[in-house]
Amino acid sequence: MNTLTFLIFFSSISFIFFGISCFVTEHMKSEFIRYGLKNYVKLVGGLQIIGALGLLIGYYYKPVLAICAALGLAILMIFGYGVRIKIKDNFIQSAPSFIYAIFNIYLAFALYKLNY
Questions:
Q1: Total domain count for the chain?
Q2: DSSP state, 90?
Q3: First to last CA, the chain
Q4: Where are the beta strands (DSSP E) in 1-116?
Q5: Which of 110, 35, 45, 43 minimizes the C-alpha distance to 71?
Q6: Which domain holds residue 54?
Q7: 35: phi then psi, degrees, rounded to nearest 5
Q8: pLDDT tens per residue, range 45-69
């Protein structure tokens, strides 16, 4: 398994986990209440799952799908980072969304460079 494949699996598995947790855990539901976004927990969870599946499926079958999925996940995380800043979370609380945003931007560019 090469590095890009590993990173795609890592991102995809992470977002599948986060997405599912939006539907089934009270912790995620309470976090979205804290963010002031309680009506969006299922939407965000669904987008995370769709993005993760798009990244996996696209990597193997349709590179443009993987690139779009990586960019979509990055945008989702940029918005997540913005919410964390808005509610004045500290650096440790805010860092994961920022790191995942950068990480998925990197994946999009790496996939583009590899395929186009």
A1: 1
A2: -
A3: 21
A4: none
A5: 110
A6: 3-115
A7: -75, -15
A8: 999 999 999 999 999 999 999 999 9
